[in-house]
Design brief:
alpha+beta, 60s Ribosomal Protein L30, Chain: A, four-stranded mixed β-sheet, 3 helices, 9 strands, globular
Length: 182
């Protein structure tokens, strides 16, 4: 018996995928965040790619991409869990991204020269740090537990997620200006 081929999908910024098929989802992150969730018993999962922590107080009617903001993508995740009749605590959740893409901007940052830890990120005002904090907070608020993470630091990440197995691969890239003449 042969297995069906693995379908390849590229997840654009602001999108969300949830299913149980033999699908490998790829995305590329800078300051953005990807959250993967996988149900080891039902063998289904999802992945999102959000740009910003929140739309803010001026919540306009949803238009365009459904998952640009962390708080709104969590609504999409919750809806998928309801449809699949599963609960947050049944999932393995992984968090990726939030890298600083322009290290020269750290010159004015409060965290310059320090290791990128949760404690340091708590006082950081960079978008990557704010995205990480929002993701961690929303994951906990919605009853999920983070099983693994690769967040912060400098440079991009290429993320590949096998929906049917829950496996995730991450390849790190250099910051945008690394190696360029000063």
């Amino acid at each position: 018996m042969t297995r069906p081929p693995v379908a390849q999908r590229f997840l654009q910024l602001g999108n969300f995928y949830f299913g149980a098929e033999r699908v490998r989802v790829h995305t590329v992150l800078g300051t953005c965040i990807a959250i993967t969730l996988w149900h080891p018993i039902k063998r289904l999962g999802g992945i999102c790619h959000y740009l910003l922590p929140t739309r803010g107080a001026a919540r306009a009617p949803a238009s365009g991409l459904p998952g640009v903001y962390a708080d709104e993508v969590m609504e999409l995740i919750e809806a998928s869990l309801r449809r699949s009749q599963t609960r947050a605590e049944e999932y393995q959740v992984k968090l990726f991204g939030g890298g600083n893409m322009f290290p020269e901007q750290l010159a004015q940052s409060k965290c310059r020269g320090e290791a990128c830890t949760d404690l340091v990120r708590a006082r950081c005002t960079g978008i990557g740090c704010r995205n990480i904090a929002a993701g961690q907070r929303l994951i906990a608020e919605h009853g999920f537990t983070i099983a693994a993470r690769d967040v912060g630091g400098h440079g991009s990440r290429q993320v590949s997620f096998d929906v049917w197995s829950g496996d995730v691969w991450v390849r790190r890239g250099a910051p945008v200006n690394e190696g360029l003449p000063a």
